Amino acid sequence: MTTATTSPVLQAQALGPQWPTLDPFLFCAHHDDSYPASDGKMGVQAVEFEGREMGSDFSRKDGWSMYHGDHVPGFPGHPHRGFETVTLVRKGLIDHSDSLGAAARFGRGDVQWVTAGEGIVHSEMFPLLNSDQPNPLELFQIWLNLPAASKMVAPHFTMFWDERIPRLVHTDAQAKRTTVTVIAGALAGADAPLAPPPESWASQDAADVAIWTLHMEPGATWTLPAARGQGTRRMLYFFAGESLQIGNVLADRHAALELVAGQDWQLVNTGSTAVECLLLQGRPLNEPVVKYGPFVMNTQEEIMQALQDYRRTQFGGWPWAEQDPVHGSEPRRFARYPGQAEDEVPGE
């Protein structure tokens, strides 16, 4: 990576299994799994399990992991408190089930946003629907912190369907396109922004939270606008493509790049393949963070209370017959919200 005297990049870090984040973000994982054809029952064929630590397989053997699944890959029922999960699915499908009674099958561009608040238990399973061809899955899971005043709010579940997510499609002077998908925050030229969950830090205008993905054709040029908020911090994850020019900095390897947020910066795809980036930004909460597994609070005492509450109440219990429920063999995407009998089907 080469820089000039005045750099838009404050720091650069390599991308590993978990990507570095900035307050108010806590965690960012990029799962990219090349699952094989299924066994006809939405799971992995037993012959594929050799050499894996089943129940806790993060091996990426043969290009994929079982995670905590023992037949269907994924994450069976587990609790959260004190933050939010935002899940962006680029390929494949995810089956969600939770202690609120909500259920969903989503993917192929959809985004799920869960406010854990005072406590929720959910499962995220990766059903393999194709028995005659591979089942690729790619997603981002992002953890967004909740301010201390909102850590014990009621949990909330919502879906943003791909067809309804705002996008900006910019064509430059060379007829090269940049597409920006806007999950959170506002962007001039895109449709009206989505409404984050009501208790989210992202719902506060002054928080200046943005979650965007960028796709730049080879040779494309686009100007990343300055953040609106005073004190906003911004991380650009360059994760696909050959090289990306940011102002006077050439990024020639994939990296997490903290950018100067208060200025516009011209981005140029200087490679021969498409460039893809994830952008996370927001005004920091500047509050103490104490983590213990799936709980994120402000003090150690609050973590101890979370453990006690979960042991006592199971955060409302688990209304499903299995810890790893999947929702049938049909590829239809849907969401069933707590207390509602009807499914919401995109486009209907």
From TrEMBL:
<dbReference type="InterPro" id="IPR003829">
    <property type="entry name" value="Pirin_N_dom"/>
</dbReference>
<dbReference type="InterPro" id="IPR008778">
    <property type="entry name" value="Pirin_C_dom"/>
</dbReference>
<dbReference type="Pfam" id="PF02678">
    <property type="entry name" value="Pirin"/>
</dbReference>
<comment type="similarity">
    <text>Belongs to the pirin family.</text>
</comment>
<feature type="domain" description="Pirin C-terminal">
    <location>
        <begin position="212"/>
        <end position="316"/>
    </location>
</feature>
<protein>
    <submittedName>
        <fullName>Pirin family protein</fullName>
    </submittedName>
</protein>
<dbReference type="InterPro" id="IPR014710">
    <property type="entry name" value="RmlC-like_jellyroll"/>
</dbReference>
<feature type="domain" description="Pirin N-terminal">
    <location>
        <begin position="65"/>
        <end position="144"/>
    </location>
</feature>
<feature type="region of interest" description="Disordered">
    <location>
        <begin position="320"/>
        <end position="348"/>
    </location>
</feature>
<dbReference type="InterPro" id="IPR011051">
    <property type="entry name" value="RmlC_Cupin_sf"/>
</dbReference>
<dbReference type="InterPro" id="IPR012093">
    <property type="entry name" value="Pirin"/>
</dbReference>
<feature type="compositionally biased region" description="Basic and acidic residues">
    <location>
        <begin position="324"/>
        <end position="333"/>
    </location>
</feature>
<dbReference type="Pfam" id="PF05726">
    <property type="entry name" value="Pirin_C"/>
</dbReference>
